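Subject: Histone H3 structure
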Amino acid sequence: TGGAKKAHRFRPGTVALREIRRYQKSTELLIRKMPFQRLVREIAQEFKTDLRFQSSAVMALQEAAEEYLVGLFEDTNLCAIHAKRVTIQPKDLLLARRIRGEKQDDIKRPERPSQWK
């Protein structure tokens, strides 16, 4: 009858909102550096082989990419809220890009690497 105390649980969404506020306040990069650098090199390889990058150039690309993504997801969230939803969906992302004037054919679906199969 005097059993173990039940663990405290926050209501659904509370922790998510706390994380959102924390990351919105922070200025540090959120994508890990090495995976981003590998992605940059992989994409650059398609245009010209034997390219070399200064570390500051990769950092500048990462800063710009993260800034773009943060803004895009802010707009995507506004599209979801406008549709009276709290969860973003792919159609919100497409609408945000369309409103921004970004071409839809800019999105190329990458081929799945052999290690994913």
